[in-house]
Amino acid sequence: MTGGPHAAARAALHAYGLGDAPFAEVSTSHNTVYRVDAPGGRRALRVGPQRTVHRPGAAAAERALLDDLASRGAVVPRVVPTDDGAASVTVEVPELPGERACMLLTWVDGEPVTRPCTVAQARDLGRLSAELHDLAPSALLLPPGALDGRDALAFAVPDLLDTAGRLAPVLRAAHERAQAAVDDLWEDRADSGTPAHVLHGDLTQTNVLTADRPRTVPAEGDEPRLVPIDFQDLLWGHVEQDLAISLLRLSRDDETGERCAAFRAGYSAVRPWPALDDALLRDLLAARRLQLVNLTLVLDRPGSDLALALHTAALERYAAGAPPEGQEAAALAAVGTTL
């Protein structure tokens, strides 16, 4: 393959002294990821889109978090610095509009988790979430580069909810309710002396690999070990917010709630489940939905209508004060909440 992101990848590799290294695309979503067969070992090169959704300094923050977690025993990828020591490199090529931020990371051997994940994998994802929460560094002030969990929309993009046509009033009402809940959460945690932490921010089954490698807390029996990847959305927030992100994605493939229940069981095997009552969890699920809806509006990619449809029905019920239905109701019931 030539042109486009491939050209950006080749340009980026020159900053690492790997201009002649063979590479091949392995995945594409928000970013495009390449496997690089470097002389010193296999690497993963992440090529970003033209439009960034993160705060300035995100690459350095990601490197700092991964270094901190690794220093305390977590199995995580590590950022490979450029020849001049930077955490990432920005390239511009004629084949693509705008600049592209690129990061080279150590390669994690493993296989992607297929959807839907198994119940055992959901349990292991919960354990992994708990392990990372145990190791997450606390921070009294917003760290440079981290997404700000005090903002219900979180990402460093404009608020375009009012541009959603007939859905705009519904989305704005949902946003006002979710933001009030986030404000209350932060105030309550401050009153109790609970600091915010730097968290993964997107720990879902799409951001882990199955790998036959030990973790800080071994999985039981012969279940696969899940290794986390893609810490780019690192979030300064509270663990309840991070859990809602994981549960929302998990619930999309979980009609009965058994995977969400397994996630909580895995988490609780490592550390106590936090004070996450039914109302707060629903508020935080709505906040995550709003983040994804707003990102969809900002990025305006093909297929946006389908992406919006994943969340708007649930947000309409939330904004109207109606009880949840379907997968969201199953998820709330599965983690021990009732309405």
UniProtKB/TrEMBL annotation:
Transmembrane segments: none annotated. It comes from the Bacteria. Residues 29-272 form the Aminoglycoside phosphotransferase domain. GO terms for molecular function: amino acid kinase activity. InterPro entries: Aminoglycoside_PTrfase, Kinase-like_dom_sf, Pseudomonas-type_ThrB. Belongs to the pseudomonas-type ThrB family. This is Aminoglycoside phosphotransferase domain-containing protein. It comes from Actinotalea ferrariae CF5-4. The lineage of its organism: Bacteria, Bacillati, Actinomycetota, Actinomycetes, Micrococcales.
